From TrEMBL:
Belongs to the glycosyl hydrolase 1 family. One of its GO terms (molecular function) is beta-glucosidase activity. It comes from Streptomyces beijiangensis. This is Family 1 glycosylhydrolase. Keywords: Glycosidase, Hydrolase.
Length: 400
């Protein structure tokens, strides 16, 4: 970057993200709760109480607001709101409405995600996303969320990382247990069609609640980088795993960009990262520049009319100094994109809390640590550093 410092625009979303199942605890009616207690080797430990954020959400929001963040992305749990098919819980709807009002009262703009990986057990038992009537059932649930999102919620995310939902469905159908050494499994085409249809139906349902709500969804961007001679291979590999979902957002109010690392593609396909690269606790290559590549690729595919919001970006590490370095590098990329004219409207870190990372508590992405016995919250230096930027809107010289 050529400038000594970069000021992020007024109104720029500056926040952190969480997901209900990963922080709430005791989501006993979700498909993931059943999976956690099924004895599968894929789950190292169950979520149980998680961060107990179902009861302590006000503590989480207090900390984020005090640190300087202006936005909080959190999800609401379908399995709580509709624990049995066609039976909606007024108590749970009221609970999530209190969270929205609590965020607003603290000066945090709420971004509400309607679906973040988990579904009710009854929905899974019907056959999930590809079952007859699944799209209509999801739209009905969205309509039932009107008391939660109908007032004071400027941004709604319909479905988090639909490409990963399709990839996981493809993995399940293939009978394979784990992911390949590099890259992602082949997605399931039927699931891809279903979640795209569900997104469009949900967006329509949200607009029926209030046309002013800005609706979008978030894509897991793998930052596929073609080695010389592998451009066509890369494009063919990426399209069903990523680009088709970005293309589906062309009519949306915004699109969420979520990235953590990169994947190099050679003539034969994805290539594992070299053994000597620095790795995070998830064993991903340490690559802060990923978000810049992800933003530029998304902008190229979705077109100029759809604003970009970084809805997840971060690093699983026990070394908080490395986390700060990662964020500094990532934000320099975001700032460079803004300077180059990309319509980037916000940056939300993953994650606000050390939480349940789909099978284990060990990968710590959080800005805030959680005591597993007392649930005491402690802001890490990275939280103070990143939250402070929310007040100044100035990217420090050292990160530029």
């Amino acid at each position: 970057m050529t400038h000594a410092s970069t000021r992020f625009p007024d109104g720029f979303l500056w926040g952190a993200s969480t997901a209900a199942h990963q922080i709430e605890g005791n989501n006993i009616n979700s498909d993931w709760w059943r999976k956690e207690h099924s004895g599968t080797d894929q789950v190292q430990e169950p979520s149980l109480d998680a961060c107990d954020s179902y009861h302590r959400w006000h503590q989480d929001m207090d900390l984020l607001a005090e640190l300087g963040f202006t936005d909080y992305r959190f999800s609401i749990e379908w399995a709580r709101i509709e624990p049995a098919e066609g039976r909606f819980s007024g108590a749970e709807i009221a609970h999530y409405r209190r969270m929205v009002e609590g965020a607003i009262a603290r000066g945090l703009r709420p971004m509400v995600t309607l679906h973040h990986f988990t579904v009710p057990q009854w929905f899974e038992d019907r056959g999930g996303w590809t079952a007859e009537g699944a799209v209509e059932l999801f739209a009905r649930y969205v309509t039932a969320c009107a008391p939660v999102i109908g007032e004071g919620v400027p941004y709604v995310c319909t479905i988090n990382e639909p490409n990963m939902i399709s990839v996981m469905a493809g993995l399940a159908k293939s009978g394979n247990v784990g992911f390949p050494p590099a890259g992602l499994p082949a997605p399931d085409d039927e699931t891809t069609e279903a979640v795209i249809a569900a997104h469009h139906a949900a967006a329509k349902a949200v607009k029926a609640i209030d046309p002013a709500i800005q609706v979008g969804w978030t894509i897991a961007n793998q930052v596929y980088q073609a080695l010389p001679g592998a451009e066509e291979v890369t494009a063919a590999y990426r399209h069903p795993r990523e680009d088709i979902f970005i293309e589906a957002a062309r009519g949306d109010d915004w699109i969420g960009v979520q990235s953590y690392t990169r994947t190099k593609i050679g003539p034969e396909g994805p290539m594992p990262a070299p053994e000597d690269v620095e790795r995070t606790l998830t064993q991903w290559e340490y690559y802060p520049a990923a978000v810049g590549h992800a933003l530029r690729h998304t902008a190229e595919v979705v077109g100029p009319g759809v604003p970009l919001i970084v809805t997840e970006n971060g690093m699983a590490t026990a070394d908080d100094a490395r986390r700060i370095d990662y964020y500094a590098g990532a934000l320099a990329e975001v700032a460079a994109g803004i300077e180059d004219g990309l319509a980037i409207h916000g940056y939300l870190a993953w994650s606000a809390l050390d939480n349940y990372e789909w099978g284990s508590f060990k990968p710590t992405f959080g800005l805030i640590s959680i005591d597993p016995e007392t649930f005491e919250r402690t802001a890490k230096p990275s939280a103070v550093w990143l939250g402070g930027l929310g007040r100044t809107r100035e990217l420090p010289r050292s990160a530029s």
